[in-house]
Amino acid sequence: MMFEGGAKSVFAPLCGKSLDLIWMYNRGHTVVGAEIAEQAVQELFSEKKLDVHVQHVEGVGPLYKSTDGTDGRLQVYVGDLFDLTKYRDLLLSSLKKDGQYYLMIIDYDPAVWPGPPHNITDQRVRQLYGEYCNIEMMQESNLTGISNPDNKASGGNAPPAKPKSAGAALRTSSYLYDRYYKITFK
Asked: If you classify domain 9-94 with CATH, what class do you get?
C-alpha cells in the first residue's frame, strides 16, 4: 500500500480542490499541492473550514497553508504550472533526498496541436531533471506504431483542417508516445 509505515509527504500537482488532499491530510500526511486556479484553492480551504494563512512565494505566487494547529501539513501553491522550469523547482523544493516522483508525459508532433496537453519529449525530461535526479523510464508506448527515433518534432505539416480537440489532433500526429518515469531526487 502506498501509505504504509507512518506519515508521508505527498506532492499533488494540478490538485484543484480534490478530496484526495483532504483524505491524505486527515490521515496525518503532509500534503503539498500545486494548482493554477486560485479560486479552487480558496474553495478547498473554505469548504473544508480550514484556517489558512496566505503568503507570497517569490517566483511562484501565493502559498495557502493550513494553520489549524497541524504544523501547516496542508500547503497549496498557486502558479503557472505550464512553466516547466518553475514546476520542476517547486517539485524539487518539496522532495527530500531519495524522494520519488512519478511522471507521465505524452510526446507527439507539436505541429498538430499546441496543447494542452503539451508535448514533452524524453530529451526535455532529461534536460529538466537529469542534473538533480536519477531518471528511470518505466514504460514507453508507441501509440501510432510510427517511430520518431530522434525524439524530435517531425516538422511535418499540420492537418488541413484544424482539429477541434486534443484527441482528434493527436490521432493525426505523425508519432505519439506516452512515457512513464520514476524520478528520484539525488
From this structure: alpha beta
CA atoms within 13 A on the CB side of 175: 22
- Is residue 107 a contact partner of residue 151, using CB atoms and an 8 Å limit? yes
**Residue 109 grid coordinates:** 508532433
How many C-beta atoms lie closer than 10 Å to residue 173's C-beta? 24
What's the average pLDDT block by block, 10 residues per block, for the chain (186 residues)?
Answer: 73 88 90 93 93 90 85 89 86 83 90 85 96 95 70 46 76 88 92
Q: Is residue 96 classed as helix, strand or coil in its secondary structure?
A: coil
CA angle 106, 109, 115 (to 5 degrees): 60
Topology of the domain covering 100-185: Rossmann fold (3.40.50)
* Residue 33 confidence (pLDDT): 92
- How much of the chain is helix, strand and coil, in % rounded to 5? 25, 30, 45
Q: What is the pLDDT of residue 161?
A: 59
